[in-house]
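Take one record.
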Amino acid sequence: MKTVLISLLGTTLDLKGKGNKRWENWRPSISLCQQEDLIIDRFELLHGKNFSRLASNVKKDIAVVSPETIVNLVESEAENPWDFEEVYNQLLDFSLNYPFKPDEERYLLNITTGTHVAQICWFLLCEARYIPATLIQSSPSNTPEGTYQIIDLDLSRYDTISSRFKKQHLKDTDFLKSGIQTHNSAFNEMITEIEHVALKSSAPILLNGPTGSGKSHLARKVFELKKIRNQINGEFVAVNCATLRGDGAMSTLFGHQKGAYTGALSARKGLLSKANKGLLFLDEIGELGLDEQAMLLNAIEEKHFFPVGSDQPTYSDFQLIAGTHKNLHHAVKSGEFREDLLARIDLWHFELPGLNQRREDIEPNIDFELREYEAKQNHKVDFNKRARETYLQFATSHEAVWSGNFRDLNASIQRMTTMSEGGRINEQNVAKEIQRLKMRWNDSPQPSSNKELCDFIDQHAIDDLDLFDQQQLMFVIQTCLQSQSASDAGRTLFNQSRLKKSSVNDSHRLRQYLKKFQLNYDQLKGSAIK
């Protein structure tokens, strides 16, 4: 692995001494290239425009003491080297544009030269992992070579430049949302928390949500964000555990030795091995068998596992994101999922709402799907005004079930764009698509759609209710049956009033309403599967 040194030019100390006498003095940039036990393969030397000549002279002297070191002179300097924000922004721009390759190169960041302001900025950038480097400092001694020290500091005490970090944070959350300007406050709060967790922790993350709610897409965006921030070097490996069956499940995940079983004509690494130094996304993890769950738990905790038929461990250090549409706590009670594995992967648990719980986000997602189609087909397509209004009115109404969530929306937009003429989706395209969606959803079984109010409360209690109250209660019950959680149901039912509250607890409001009729959410969900 090559060693790369990044440093600011020492405009005073690197200039010390004239002629041959300069070799009698300690000069910080050159001294690091004179160390017998430190080989610098490449030196990125940042300097101001007014110090180009000095930088060239330093480069020549480095060539004398360390001919194998490649020196790159980088012109980069703030107008005022004592202005904190100006220096920080200048160095941040350098770090964002530099092609770091941490899996191929080792980076050392020299904090000996430059102003105190620049040194603090180097600290912050290194701590925030914008620069994946180790700090190094040189110092004078009895010889011109001086000494050096590798520094490992906890820089959490240093304050940040809040405006720049806030801007970067907004960019990161926008990245996780694929640039979609979502309006659902609960979803936006969740994405903010996921962004924070993803960049601060390598612990497993559990994404729970209905099929088509975007778990796979979000997992990939988390991987891409960590890759951009130099926090992960390996691959993104995704597998749908629902497709793994029998002996093939073990082999697919953990690999096997040649001859491990009939048909194993050659060795296979397995997906966990492929995910080393990367991110492993196990969708529908609740479908894994108990044996696979036990081996996965060991792989997470010990960073190694045994391929099928092997007595030699395979090491793999990966971050895990798991996805499921099931309630894994119920699966533990029924013996279908290991309690110890759930405890290990449930440290960070996020509930992804379905599309029918985020109806205010349907319009920006329609625009996103149109942009995606345009990029793939290389031509622009859009609705005419009346067609767009008609489709939006239907899509955001409760008449639109969106049982397949974003997959339904994606397919719907694809159908209309394919059938459009001249890149314009018209009223006829929309009318046919609405009819197609209604037929599709009517053919799909809806939970407890045939149930009556008397299936949930006593007939005498119903007789005491006004017709208005009966209809309202039945609507609340149906919403609960079609939701993944009490919070999801609450967000749907209180979609407007919740926006006016500084702090919301939708599930509590729902449970208080149901309590008036001696009902509770868990009881209703239990009736849906009977």
